[in-house]
Design goal:
Blueprint (H helix, E strand, L loop, with lengths): L8 E3 L6 H14 L3 E2 L6 E2 L1 E3 H15 E3 L6 H8 L12 E2 H9 L3 H15 L2 H5 L12 E4 L5 H16 L6 H10 L15 E5 L6 E8 L2 H9 L1 H5 L20 E4 L2 H8 L6 E9 L2 E6 L15 H21 L7 H4 L1 H12 L7 E5 L8 E5 L5 E3 L8 E5 L7 E5 L18 E14 L20 H5 L1
Parallel strand pairs: 12-13, 15-18
Antiparallel strand pairs: 1-4, 2-3, 5-7, 6-7, 8-12, 9-11, 10-14, 11-18, 13-14, 16-17
Length: 465
């Protein structure tokens, strides 16, 4: 090395990476210190090649790994194959160009930093064995490592354990964990700049949902047709069972984007009858779109220590969708739904996010169909004026039959709304003209298969006899 890295200076103007440049400027401003830059020769806020080199070394060590300077066994085999035109090329980016791109400096500065780092990382053992490539040597190549989000996976596992084995209500550990996992949710965007928190309803692409309910006899189905708002909408609190996004006794609205998806989600038995109906979303609701979790693109600087934490958070969130929407066996629902129920409650009550629902892909469908759960506060149904209506169900049984609902004007008192919540806004409206009856004739399963290996083991004791 033909220069002293402690006496060669680079000013913040010669560093294109914004975070690193601002850091150099702000540090020197506190010291009211200016020096002549060794590259642009202006008197400015500067840092030594040694200091910026150490900063770059730390960043590369945390986010990159040196690739092998030799082909692996398979690549060697390809090279030895006389009929193959394969030409081995080392993976990754050469160190000088990596420094050039990372720091946004000139090639001259990048080369000086590389020389300093190579000299720093060389040892006597490498001088004795010159064939061994050192870290940051001029020939070395680096490739970016993928964040695994292990820190957040551990937090999530502890969260699940806490909910199953400790307090489920007033659990401060659960709330603080969810706060950390979803930190900054309102500012997260996908790589094509779509926000994770989006709006559905009026003036959006998602203006309605379908809901399904199965019946095993005509009498119960008749009651639903007579009172569709109460019996086809979200159940009254007293009848509300636990679901993926709600605890028992908390009434929410589960809907789907198609009738087929709505039917498949309730898993009706063969021979049962299912009513489906469309509900219009009459307000603008804020929802978390889980479909975009695996498309989050973190924005920031690799030189920012906080950004490393954000990268790991995003790595975890990309896998969180599968954890939340993975199929759960009926026998395991009581425990396995605890975590997703806690997530839903956290999102609904959070003072900043204030989410009205969660949109997630259907596990019962292989295409782009989705479900949308609308939380309790936003799931109130708009009731038609009942004081003028009476409903009768007429059926005609022959080779075919028709179900008809007749409305007759009556002068009666206003009917009680079973789900009335004075503080809540009516956000959903049923379209009674869209009600369809479906008879479940069969169910088609999608599955994978594996053979079972059956082996006979000869007992040695029998051989001795």
């Amino acid at each position: 090395m033909n220069f002293n890295p402690r006496k060669k200076y680079i000013c913040y103007c010669c560093v294109g990476e914004k975070f690193l440049s601002n850091e150099i400027e702000s540090t020197n401003k506190k010291l009211s210190r200016k020096r002549k830059c060794s590259y642009c020769h202006e008197k400015e806020m500067t840092i030594t090649i040694q200091d910026i080199g150490d900063r770059i070394e730390k960043t590369i060590t945390e986010h990159y790994i040196k690739t092998s300077d030799q082909p692996d066994d398979f690549q060697y085999a390809m090279l030895r194959d006389k009929e193959s035109s394969y030409d081995w090329e080392r993976e990754g980016q050469d160190i000088t160009n990596l420094i050039f791109d990372l720091a946004g400096v000139s090639m001259e500065i990048a080369e000086n930093i590389q020389i300093y780092l190579e000299d720093k990382n060389s040892s006597w053992s490498h001088h004795d064995e010159p064939d061994i490539e050192t870290e940051f040597s001029s020939e070395s190549h680096y490739t970016e490592t993928k964040a695994n989000g292990n820190e957040y996976h551990q937090l999530w596992n502890k969260l699940e354990q806490s909910l199953k084995e400790e307090a489920r209500y007033f659990n401060h550990n659960v709330m603080s964990t969810l706060e950390e996992i979803f930190s900054g949710l309102d500012t997260m965007n996908t790589f094509n700049n779509k926000p994770l928190l989006k709006y559905v309803g009026v003036d959006t692409k998602i203006t309605h949902l379908y809901r399904a309910r199965s019946f095993e006899n005509f009498e119960t189905m008749e009651k639903a047709l007579v009172d569709p708002e109460n019996l086809l909408g979200p159940p009254a609190t007293v009848y509300s069972g636990s679901g993926r996004m709600n605890a028992r006794g908390i009434s929410v609205f589960y809907g789907a984007n198609t009738r087929e998806t709505a039917i498949s989600e309730i898993r009706p038995s063969v021979g049962s009858q299912v009513l489906t109906t469309k509900f219009d979303i009459t307000s603008k609701l804020k929802v978390l779109d889980l479909r975009n979790l695996d498309k989050i693109s973190p924005k920031g600087s690799l030189f920012d220590p906080i950004f490393k934490k954000k990268i790991n958070q995003v790595a975890f969130l990309k896998n969180l969708k599968e954890r939340i929407v993975s199929p759960v066996l009926p026998s395991a629902e009581a425990f396995d739904y605890l975590t997703t129920q806690a997530v839903a409650e956290f999102l609904e009550q959070h003072p900043i996010y204030n989410v009205d629902g969660v949109l997630y892909p259907s596990v019962q469908s292989k295409n782009d169909d989705f479900n949308l759960v609308i939380f309790h506060k936003s799931s109130k149904i708009k009731f038609r004026p009942p004081s003028k209506k009476e409903f009768k169900v007429m059926s005609y049984f022959d080779d075919e039959y028709e179900i008809c609902v007749l409305e007759t004007e009556l002068k009666i008192e206003k009917k009680d709304n079973k789900q009335d919540e004075s503080n809540f806004t009516e956000c959903l409206s049923i379209d009674v003209g869209s009600i369809h009856l479906h008879e479940i004739c069969g169910v088609k399963y999608s599955f994978s298969s594996k053979g079972i290996s059956w082996r006979t083991h000869q007992n040695r004791h029998f051989e001795d006899e």
